[in-house]
């Protein structure tokens, strides 16, 4: 029998997109852009939970998400704080007058409350200590983590740190070098000399989602020297047929595979996902990606980390797999996966995330109406359909959604229908 909500620990979900784990905190453009996705974390909540978010959650979206998960809206608290330049989200929460006392009282009234962050960093551990609760990156039933996990999480979220871990664990990576900002031009020149494709990929050492990534071809102007204190990774560009990833949980018993899929990218930036990898890459490639993820997980576990992580890779034109980075935190696909599992009861399905562009600005209610009028919205009875997994975009035009279907073909058909629904006229449909 599944545990009742009252039997499970309460969560304080911290949408800490502002974390030095993923990007320099002064990269306000990137931090602000990512933070706009924070409302999606409401899908993780159950009665008695709190969501701490740097951007407001619209009431129509909150009621929509709670309606599908069967959680009475009034039983979930949503607290909005405003990110501050150069400050981690957890530090912002800690220094917001009255908020820590409020959260401490909430936790005291609910023994067993845990803090679930998107990213594990030192400010998050400090916030948990202030509240007198453990940090549990695995969620309400997972093991807590402590300060010993910080170093390995921080290291493997850097490009250089991942490449070092890859060498130690037998994970294949593209040819490349790590360098300081004042060595950048010389390093790019050296990698281009070696590159069979005549291209190099320039990556800030700490970045995510393709932020700051650049492609340089032989004959292009070389990048100007950057701040000498900055760190960079320059790799040989690998012509490839697919960008793939696999996500795992690092647990005391070992790494647990969660899901894998093909990443949608545009100029190296993440734009969506299709899962699982069934039939999209050769079985041997998929198996190798799984072995690499398990090897990385064992290393993380040895150093005290418990929680989600992924490994990203490309499938070269010749079928060779090359790992490109790891993300030791919740990623853009973690919450969509969690909500798909929650809404389908864990049944095997094919799912994806994508963006549909509307023909003009829509409210959340209007956008949902486009899906419902055409019978495309997620049906709990069938366990399939389209989900608006994120709140209304600022422009009302580019809508993030998840497609859930029984087969890859049905999922692709659903995506096409969603695109047509947002481009076509509004239809009168069921309320």
UniProtKB/TrEMBL annotation:
ATP-grasp domain residues: 163-357
Keyword list, A-Z: ATP-binding, Nucleotide-binding
One GO MF term: ATP binding
One of the Pfam families matching this protein, by short name: PreAtp-grasp
KW ATP-binding (keyword) present: yes
InterPro entries for the chain: ATP-grasp, PreAtp-grasp
Protein name: ATP-grasp domain-containing protein
Originating organism: Actinacidiphila alni
């Amino acid at each position: 029998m599944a545990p009742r909500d009252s039997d499970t620990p309460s969560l304080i979900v911290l949408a800490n997109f502002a974390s030095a784990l993923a990007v320099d905190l002064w990269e306000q453009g990137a931090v602000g852009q990512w933070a706009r996705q924070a409302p999606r974390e409401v899908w993780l909540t159950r009665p008695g939970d709190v969501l701490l978010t740097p951007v407001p959650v619209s009431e129509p979206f909150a009621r929509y998400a709670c309606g599908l998960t069967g959680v009475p809206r009034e039983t979930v608290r949503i607290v909005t704080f405003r990110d501050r330049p150069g400050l981690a989200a957890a530090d912002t929460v800690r220094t917001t007058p009255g908020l820590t006392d409020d959260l401490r009282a909430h936790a005291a009234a609910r023994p067993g409350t845990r803090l679930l962050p998107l990213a594990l960093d030192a400010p998050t551990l400090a916030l948990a200590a202030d509240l007198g609760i453990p940090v549990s990156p695995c969620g309400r039933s997972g093991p807590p983590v402590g300060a010993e996990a910080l170093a390995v999480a921080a290291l493997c979220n850097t490009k250089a740190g991942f490449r070092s871990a890859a060498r130690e664990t037998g994970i294949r990576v593209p040819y490349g070098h790590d360098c300081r900002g004042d060595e950048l031009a010389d390093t790019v020149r050296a990698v281009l000399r070696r590159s069979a494709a005549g291209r190099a990929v320039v990556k800030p050492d700490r970045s995510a989602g393709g932020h700051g990534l650049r492609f340089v071809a032989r004959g292009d102007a070389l990048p100007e020297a950057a701040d000498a204190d900055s760190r960079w990774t320059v790799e040989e560009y690998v012509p490839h047929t697919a960008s793939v990833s696999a996500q795992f949980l690092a647990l005391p018993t070992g790494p647990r595979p969660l899901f894998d899929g093909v990443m949608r990218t545009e100029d190296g930036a993440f734009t969506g996902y299709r899962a699982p990898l069934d039939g999209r890459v050769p079985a041997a490639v998929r198996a190798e990606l799984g072995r690499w993820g398990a090897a990385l997980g064992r290393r993380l576990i040895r150093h005290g980390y418990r929680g989600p992580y992924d490994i990203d890779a490309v499938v070269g034109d010749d079928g060779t797999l090359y790992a490109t980075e790891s993300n030791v935190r919740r990623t853009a696909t973690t919450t969509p996966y969690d909500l798909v599992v929650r809404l389908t009861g864990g049944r095997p399905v094919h799912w994806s995330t994508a963006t549909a562009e509307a023909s003009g600005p829509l409210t959340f209610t209007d956008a949902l109406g486009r899906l419902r009028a055409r019978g495309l919205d997620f049906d709990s009875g069938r366990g399939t359909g389209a989900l608006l997994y994120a709140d209304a975009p600022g422009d009302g035009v580019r809508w993030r959604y998840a497609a859930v279907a029984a087969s890859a073909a049905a999922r692709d058909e659903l995506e096409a229908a969603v695109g047509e629904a947002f481009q076509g006229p509004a239809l009168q449909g069921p309320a």
